[in-house]
Write a structure and sequence with these properties.
With 363 residues, the chain is α+β, with helices and mostly antiparallel strands. Helix content is 16%, strand content 46%. It has two domains: 166 residues, AttH-like domain (AttH-like fold), CATH 2.40.370; 117 residues, Beta Barrel (AttH-like fold). A hairpin with a 5-residue loop joins strand 10 and strand 11.
Length: 363
């Protein structure tokens, strides 16, 4: 009887051990499946933000985009952020106070949807009379505009960059300077490149649009001085499955006195080999695409450029307004100059130039 009791006890303990081992195996299997599914989902997300598979797109739209290689800008929907690797919202403005003193402002938000996410806001304000330049930047590991429809809203402390539908606000507070500026839509939005698509060859494609001649006004504080500013601004928004900050370029956003707006860009490789350029010219709300052989950009000494568009009988002489440039040197070893320019030659006007990575080699 005693042996029978011991046997029954051992049998019960054996069954408990077997059940415990089964539970352990089940838990281990569940964890393994969860890890595998997590890795697959992350891989899908990583491919999607690089444009290899569609994300948040209807099948018909994705097939059309891949089959016909066309992309259309839809506003205000595309004012918001996108499921892509890289995205940038940028403002460039020329303003003046009641005394006629001029100021150049560049403010931009760079969003990199890597793991972790990185949001970088940079601002640069230049007093064109004295050449004094004020710069600052803030960075956070989060996308604070996620979930905002038909617009964007980035907030970091006292800084706020927001907009949508052509109504925007820039608010920045630093120890050296502060400003609170509002913008409204001027000219009709401009789809950049070929109907809103920018082709960077083997590096991939991006989408972009711009707003020209946006009225901008507000207040600027420097020390104890508060000034009212008024002027006009360029706004551009670009997104895609590639980090555009890694490519070299020379690009121009030009507003001519006769009512024409020009957007021209020549990208180039890390070794300064040029890629095919692209651009647009816009007048009275109508935009036409410019291909690489439609225009020519040349450097002039000691500093400046010439831009020739034979079909439009345009031959421009472009000179920097501020020698130091803005947002200078943020690209590490690759030189970076961005600033306001004066336009002469066959037409008069003003605008902005961006030279990243030096000058491209000749073909």
């Amino acid at each position: 009887m005693a042996e029978s009791g011991v046997s029954k006890t051992r049998s019960r303990e054996s069954r408990r051990h077997r059940r415990l081992r089964r539970r352990v195996r089940q838990v281990a299997l569940g964890l393994t499946v969860a890890l595998v599914l997590g890795a697959i989902l992350y891989g899908v997300y990583a491919l999607a933000i690089r444009g290899f598979i569609p994300l948040n797109q209807h099948a018909e739209e994705w097939f059309e985009a891949r089959g016909e290689q066309t992309t259309l800008i839809e506003l205000p929907r595309d004012d918001a952020d996108h499921d892509t690797l890289f995205e940038r919202w940028r403002y460039r403005a020329l303003m003046s106070n009641p005394r006629g003193d001029e100021f150049t402002l560049i403010a931009q938000v760079n969003l990199l949807n890597e793991i972790p996410v990185q949001t970088l806001i940079q601002v640069s304000l230049t007093d064109e009379q004295t050449g004094r330049r004020f710069t600052d930047e803030k960075r956070i590991p989060v996308n604070s505009t996620r979930g905002i429809r038909d617009g964007f809203r980035f907030s970091i402390g006292d800084w706020r960059i927001e907009g949508g539908g052509g109504k925007d606000r820039l608010r920045v507070v630093t120890d050296d300077f502060s400003f609170d500026l509002r913008l409204s839509e001027g000219a009709a939005p401009i789809p950049q490149g070929d109907n809103g698509r920018l082709d960077f060859g083997e590096h991939g494609q991006a989408q972009a649009y711009a707003r020209a001649r946006m009225p901008i006004n507000g207040v600027l504080r420097r020390g104890d001085m508060i000034e009212v500013l008024n002027g006009h601004a360029w706004f551009d928004h670009v997104w895609g499955p590639l980090d555009l900050s890694l490519l070299g370029r020379r690009a121009f956003a030009i507003t001519l006195d006769d009512g024409m707006d020009l957007l021209l860009e020549e990208p180039f490789e890390h070794d300064d080999r040029p890629m095919d350029g692209f651009g647009t010219w816009t007048r009275d709300g109508l935009t036409s695409h410019l291909r690489a052989d439609d225009f020519k950009i040349s450097s002039t000494a000691p500093s400046g450029w010439t831009i020739v568009i034979p079909a439009l009988e345009i031959a421009l002489e472009v000179s920097p307004i501020t020698r130091g440039g803005d947002l200078e040197g943020d690209a590490g070893s690759r030189s970076n100059w961005e600033g306001a320019v004066e336009i002469g030659g066959s037409h008069r006007g003003r605008g902005f130039a961006e030279i990243k990575g030096g000058e491209p080699l000749r073909r």
